[in-house]
Amino acid sequence: MLQLYVPLNFLGVMYRELKQSLVDVDKMFNLLHSAPDVLDAPDANELHVAHGRIEFKHVHFSYNPNRQILHDVSFVVEPNTTTAIVGKSGAGKSTLSRLLFRFYDIDAGDVLIDGQSIAKVTQTSLRRAIGIVPQDTVLFNDSLGYNIQYGRPDANATEVRAAASAAHLDDFLSRLPEGLDTAVGERGLKISGGEKQRVAIARTLLKNTPILIFDEATSALDSHAEKAIQSAFDDAARNRTTLIVAHRLSTIIHADQILVMEAGRIIERGTHAQLLAQNGSYAAMWAAQQEERTIEAVA
Ligand code: ATP
To answer: Where is the ABC transporter domain (predicted)?
Structure first.
């Protein structure tokens, strides 16, 4: 009976949650990604972020018991710096960002923010401190302004406008007769992947979190869209602790630290210049991407 009770109870909870929050994408995201056993510790405290220092300490992790995904991963992201994670598809890059958000609990080691283990703080306070710009942003069938304001529902119109500007959306908005009131989504204006990501940046800027995760879109963007996202993101990253899951190395050459992952391990780390000088995996990836760009430019 107990074997049935647990999944049925979870389904019941899930149904109630879904019903309550059909328009609440953050909650849906949490629900879909977090296993039911990610629970607040009985004595969980609120997370206090004074500086925003992130530390992964000997982290071991597997989604399923028969396949280990991360092997002894350790790194520090110092406050107000940017760390980029690069590596082949499946290397474990996005897993690191999911673990920082505590969508899953780790098997061994610790993940700390300003010295506080994220397993020992409330999930609400943890997620309040972190803004995510996902690879593919879901837009509601509503106005652009609404979609940005979703980052902080009590923000006023001036703050929404400022967030849009900070995300370098002014040019785009000036071409729309209805500006921020333009309807988007399935039933509205179809906007490009690059514009969508800037809407997500504006939304996250409005949430104004000390920690920012940016999951770069894998799909190819034209160089104009890429530059617009890049400058929006660089501005957003200022004065925040930032983690970028990067696919295009050209976007992260100024990162304070680059971690190169392969099969769940960090195999190289350093700045762009240091990694090029090492002449290892990163240097090979860089050379391959430069060659691709040259071919694209000639074609
Ligand atoms: P990409 O560049 O393609 O986004 P990545 O480096 O971000 O890849 P992850 O998404 O972190 O890779 O995945 C690391 C490994 O974990 C992969 O082998 C993947 O198949 C596996 N994995 C990811 N999510 C799950 C899941 N929910 N359940 C089981 N295995 C998973």
So the answer is: 54-288
Residue 91 Cα to ligand 1 middle (Å): 7
Integer Cα distance of 93 and 61 in angstroms: 13
Cβ of 69 below 6 Å from ligand 1:
yes
Pocket test for ligand 1, best of 38, 69, 105, 216 (most atoms within 8 A of CB): 69
> What CA–CA distance (Å, rounded) separates 173 from 275?
39
Residue 288 burial class via C-beta count within 10 angstroms: exposed 0-12, middle 13-18, buried 19 and up:
exposed
Which DSSP letter does residue 47 get? Answer: P
Query: Of 16, 221, 238, 89, nearest to 198 (Cα)?
Result: 221
pTM of the model: 0.83
Q: What is the structure's pLDDT at 6?
A: 46
Return the closest-CA partner of residue 157 out of 144, 169, 167, 168: 144
Residues forming a β-bridge with 36: none
Tokens of 265: 């391990």
Confidence of residue 33 (pLDDT cuts 50, 70, 90): low
C-alpha of residue 92 to centroid of ligand 1, in Å? 6
**Would you place residue 19 in the very low, low, confident or very high pLDDT band (cuts 50, 70, 90)?**
very low
Give yes or no for residue 223 having a pLDDT over 60: yes
* Cα 10 from Cα 292, distance rounded (Å): 48
- 86 Cβ below 6 A of ligand 1: no
Q: What is the ipTM of this complex?
A: 0.97
- Residue predicted with more confidence, 79 or 220: 79
Q: What is the DSSP letter of 219?
A: S
The pLDDT tens digits of the residues spanning 161-184 come to 999 998 989 999 999 999 999 999
Distance 245 CA to ligand 1 centre (A): 13
Taking only the tens place, the pLDDT of each residue in 35-48 is 557 899 999 999 99
Q: How far, in Å, from the CA of 177 to the mean position of ligand 1?
A: 42
